Q: What sequence folds into this?
């Protein structure tokens, strides 16, 4: 007999970007999947939510305050009363708060699973974040049947939560990525990618991938580029993504007078060609859950320069398979990029170790773990 699952998230683009491998696997296991989220796909080129029975456009604001999402809450309650769901799977804090309240209100027997894509409290986070969000996450944990976290720091913090049930906290290595879509880079694939993108063969190409926002912190890599533009021959930084900080970052580029060295590509659904064309992958994030784009870069085999923050340091050990740099110091990122520019032997050692490490983060492994969690939740094998 098929089991019914309702996924709840802030946006459909989040579901489309991270959860299609899981949806495909769940459908093969005869789960029927519905999704409730804000429909923002019109602004995200080529993203699509597949493998579902129903998609409900439920505007959910990214706010922990109940009254900000009272309309979404009422809609979710209605869905729970109308449909006999076996599992509610929420994939961020706001969706989790709404789901917990809605399950109680609707008197639903659905099991509640929560995937945290990076707690808002973490090492070097503000005291305000800890005061606001730690109690919220701790309180929500009491009503869960399973909590999934994606990195070691979040796992260590979550172990202190007061769960009402034992054995329901899981560390899963991301949401999975399809390694076949990100094949190993070769000299030939690099040449073909550059010709396709119109990139010069002599460019030293650094790429940074992600939404342009305060958390991704692209001003760090922009300032690093300014520091090395005269030393690194034919340097070009490609900032792949769009977001609320784009105008500010473009103004920073103008202020630093480095317009000839920076390319803003806008949002790209497929970054494979950019990965194959690149010489360095740089992440300037202040914090991550577990960065998908870094996993993809590891599989393609590109040298990594990442900020030393949660999520990034789960994937890179400094000096072993990449370089970790200070989150707030562009000089350290500039030095790291220069080190890769000059040291071919170092690059080879990094790539070999990255390729070995990335295997545990593939679709296959993640799907298996999530499938086991669902089975445990539904068969009540979790110890109480």
A:
């Amino acid at each position: 007999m098929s089991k019914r699952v309702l996924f709840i998230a802030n946006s459909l683009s989040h579901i489309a970007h991270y959860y299609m491998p899981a949806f495909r696997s769940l459908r093969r296991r005869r789960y029927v999947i519905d999704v409730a989220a804000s429909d923002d796909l019109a602004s995200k080129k080529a993203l699509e939510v597949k493998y579902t029975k129903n998609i409900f456009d439920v505007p959910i604001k990214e706010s922990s305050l109940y009254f900000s999402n009272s309309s979404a809450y009422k809609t979710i309650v209605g869905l729970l009363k109308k449909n006999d769901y076996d599992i509610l799977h929420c994939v961020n804090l706001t969706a989790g708060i709404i789901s917990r309240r809605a399950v109680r209100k609707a008197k639903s027997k659905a099991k509640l699973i929560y995937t945290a894509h990076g707690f808002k409290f973490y090492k070097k986070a503000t005291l305000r974040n800890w005061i606001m969000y730690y109690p919220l996450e701790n309180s929500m944990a009491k009503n869960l049947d399973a909590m999934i976290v994606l990195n070691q720091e979040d796992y260590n913090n979550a172990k202190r939560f007061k769960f009402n049930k034992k054995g329901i906290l899981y560390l899963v290595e991301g949401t999975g990525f399809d390694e076949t879509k990100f094949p190993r880079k070769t000299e030939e694939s690099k040449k073909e990618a550059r010709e396709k993108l119109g990139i010069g063969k002599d460019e030293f190409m650094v790429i940074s991938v992600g939404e342009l926002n305060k958390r991704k912190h692209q001003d760090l890599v922009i300032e690093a580029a300014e520091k090395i533009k005269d030393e690194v021959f034919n340097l070009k930084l490609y900032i792949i993504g769009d977001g609320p900080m784009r105008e500010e970052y473009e103004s920073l580029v103008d202020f630093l007078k480095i317009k000839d060295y920076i390319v803003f590509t806008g949002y790209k659904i497929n970054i494979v060609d950019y990965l194959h064309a690149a010489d360095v992958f740089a992440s300037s994030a202040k914090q991550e859950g577990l960065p998908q784009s870094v996993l993809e870069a590891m599989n393609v085999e590109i040298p990594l320069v990442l900020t030393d923050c949660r999520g990034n340091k789960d994937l890179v050990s400094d000096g072993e398979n990449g370089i970790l740099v200070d989150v707030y110091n562009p000089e350290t990122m500039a030095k790291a990029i220069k080190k890769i520019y000059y040291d071919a032997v170092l690059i080879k050692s990094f790539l070999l170790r990255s390729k070995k490490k990335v295997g545990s983060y593939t679709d296959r492994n993640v799907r298996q773990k999530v499938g086991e969690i669902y089975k445990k939740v539904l068969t009540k094998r979790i110890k109480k």
